[in-house]
Amino acid sequence: MEKLSKGLALVQNVEACIPSDECRRCGACIAACPVNAVSLKDYHVKVNGCTACSERLVGLCVEACPTTADYDELERQVFGRLRRPGEGFGIYRWVSKAISLHPELRKQAYCGGTASALTYAALSSGFVDAAIICSWGDGEPWRPGPRIIRDPKDVVYGLGSKYFPSPNLRDLGKLGDAERVLFVGLPCHVTAVRKMQYSDNRVLRNLTKRIRVIIGTFCGIPAMLTAESFAAHITKHKVPLDKITHVTSVCSSLFQGVRAYRVHTTMGSVDFPVLFLLRDLQKERLRCSENCFDYSSDLADISVGGTIPPELPLRYISNALFVRTSVGEELVELACNSRLLSTRKMGSLFLRGLRLFPPYWRKRTRYRKYRKERDAEKR
Questions:
Q1: What is the mean pLDDT of residues 301-313?
Q2: Are 192 and 232 contained in the same domain?
Q3: How many helices (H) and strands (E) in the chain?
Q4: How far apart are CA 285 and CA 279, in angstroms?
Q5: Facing residues of 342 across strands?
Q6: For the domain that residue 56 is a member of, what is the CATH number?
């Protein structure tokens, strides 16, 4: 309640929301606002006329925000218990290596194409009526955003990783007549959805009640940049925005992660090293990711993450797949039976390899600090 009270105070202070370093740009506030007082412009959250909220609805945007979540309480509500000391990747039923068997999805995917294969299987079989995925913007292929899809063929719009914040929850109120929805997002998106699902407020619960299954992806970005700041930066280097076709990444080695962003244009491709980007855009970095401790979407029904750089031959590429709930297990079995996904259950040795990734132990250290502070508060 203390965090929520502080958040409610921020709602009254417009300047505190333009923008906040703690904002993860997930779009939860936009989805929750009943009078559309909160809008998204250039990926900066701005509050316009919050006084329009009635007393009953004031603070819904803050209540949906993942940065004010009681993570321990959400874990109890989703799984019925807290994780144990050795469960660094959260609570799950089983873990495996997975890869898409759909040739087109596998070819265009960043890594193994597992999340896309699961989405394709869910839509094609009628497991869900619609899916909310993250895709590059129409006409702005450097700016990610949410997309509601109903046709399995439209899964291609979500293929590949996105490297800037996306307000995936923004379109929760635009689902139309879809009764069963699949949601794909990062850990911050997943936390916001779970927070809204288990909220005491009926408005928030109604926004997420149609979400049947949540697929969460891994997130190890050390410091986020907004798409707007990235676009301004590459424009200074004489890369015309109207010539960009798509953006990919370049990995240096197995454990060092993304080395550069590769901007593909109609005239060729240009690499922008991440270290230089962070140096040149130091003032525009979003510090929120430096405080986040959820690496593997621990509150999702299914968690998917890449395990090796995509530069390796296709036969070596795969995803880590954590199945956490019964509905997640049902979807994975459906995809395997439809011959859209191949899985191979792995043991402790596989998990040890995943723990070598720097983003994992950085965020794991933050989680230990969070639990230590929570335990101190309870005393």
A1: 69
A2: no
A3: 13, 13
A4: 10
A5: 99
A6: 3.30.70
Q: What is the DSSP letter of 296?
A: S
- Report strand pairing: 258-265 vs 211-217: unpaired
Same domain, 201 and 345: yes
Report the mean per-residue pLDDT for the chain.
80
Last residue of a domain, one of 270, 285, 300: 285
Mean pLDDT, range 120-124, rounded to an integer: 95
Q: Are 82 and 161 members of one domain?
A: yes
Residue 300 has pLDDT above 80, yes or no: yes
**Could you tell me the residue range of the domain that residue 248 belongs to?**
227-285
Rounded Cα distance, 143 and 90, in Å: 31
Q: How far apart are CA 129 and CA 181, in angstroms?
A: 6
- Segments of the chain assigned E as strands: 38-41, 44-47, 94-100, 130-137, 140-149, 181-185, 211-217, 244-251, 258-265, 268-273, 302-306, 319-323, 341-345
Other Cβ atoms closer than 10 A to 151: 10
pTM for this entry: 0.87
Q: What is the pLDDT of residues 317-326, one digit of tens each?
A: 778 899 999 9
